[in-house]
Amino acid sequence: MTIPTGCRVTDGGLETDLIFHRGYDLPEFAAFPLLDSEDGGATLADYFRAYVEVAIAAQAPVLLETPTWRANRDHAERLGYGAADLDRVNRASVDLLVGLAREREDELVGWSVGGTLGPRGDGYRTDGAVDPARAAEYHRPQIASFGAAGVERVTALTLTEVGEAVGVAWAAADVGVPAAVGFTVETDGRLPDGTTLAEAVAAVDAVAQPAYFLVNCAHPTHVLAGLDDGAWRERIGGLRVNASTRSHAELDEATELDEGDPVALAAAQQPLLEAFPQLGVLGGCCGTDVRHVAAMWGVATS
């Protein structure tokens, strides 16, 4: 198992773990409302503690990223959360993770907390080009909440086109928080709108230059299908792969979890670890849990 020095452990597929392993119903595929109940908060704490254990076992730093992929205006309004509630819950998510890291601070090589945000629309498809300025305005409140709570960085996961990625990077720069921009790809290694990863990275860097990029919510074989030898690969600083080889359309229609095999997933991912020399964050996405991330890091789960 070859993992770049200094790479950080992060978590797996939070929402699929909550739904299929812990029995939660997540309207809007949103985990953040769990912060507002004693049982839900305890479940989230239990979930993230398992990844702290992986980091301790791997003797690697941990990046705990908030359960707030859907904690933006459009999705939250459908769940009864207004602007003040969103600000509160985004800040509370940071406080939860800081507290968990401090529980084991003496055993950890290092730790940090990041704020997670997701796309305004669907994470599996695109409705066309997004205006970057409008995207920046839309995402700025959530990023501002994270900034006020003291996150080290914000990470946008499962973006499907360039305009929204630029807007996120602009908003983060306005707030003064480093941003990681995460794209998802289809089985051919291209974004849902057909853009290649190389093209997407170049287009964002031309006008925004986030701290780094990552790829998430795709099986390693799908990411590999879109690789070339370009220098853009040095801008990929994070990787969160899916357990399943199914397409996004197939996953959308699935009624059972395809969690694959953790050891096989770690092996399938190895070529990507070699392809992305600046990789600094390694975890999972849909269908993965602590077993998959532990296998990626070559450690056993308790």
Task: Give me a quick take on this structure.
This is Homocysteine S-methyltransferase family protein. Helices cover 43% and strands 13% of the residues.
Tell me what you see in this structure:
The protein is an alpha/beta fold and 302 residues long. It contains eleven helices and eight strands. Helix 4 crosses helix 5 (132-149) and helix 6 (162-175) packs parallel to helix 7 (197-205). The chain is globular and about 45 Å long. The chain starts with 7 loop residues before the first strand and ends in a 6-residue tail after the last helix. The relative contact order is 0.15. Zn(2+) binds at residues 217, 285-286. Its cofactor is Zn(2+).
Topology record:
Blueprint: E1 8-9, H1 14-21, H2 38-58, E2 62-65, H3 73-78, H4 83-103, E3 111-117, H5 132-149, E4 153-159, H6 162-175, E5 179-183, H7 197-205, E6 212-216, H8 220-224, E7 236-241, H9 248-253, H10 262-275, E8 281-284, H11 290-296
Parallel strand pairs: 1-8, 2-3, 3-4, 4-5, 5-6, 6-7, 7-8
Helix pairs in contact: 2-4, 4-5, 5-6, 6-7, 10-11
Keywords:
single chain; 302 residues; alpha/beta; TIM Barrel; eight-stranded parallel sheet; 43% helix; globular
Tally of individual domains: 1
SSE string, helices as H and strands as E: EHHEHHEHEHEHEHEHHEH
Kindly report the oligomeric state of this protein: single chain
How much helical structure, as a percent, in the residues?
Answer: 40-55%
Instruction: Going across the biggest sheet, name each strand in turn.
Output: 1-8-7-6-5-4-3-2
Please report the distance between the alpha carbons of the first and last residues. 20 Å
Strand content: 5-15%
Outline the low-pLDDT stretches.
none
What is the molecular shape? Answer: globular
CATH class: Alpha Beta
Number of helices: 11
CATH topology: TIM Barrel
Largest sheet: 8 strands, parallel
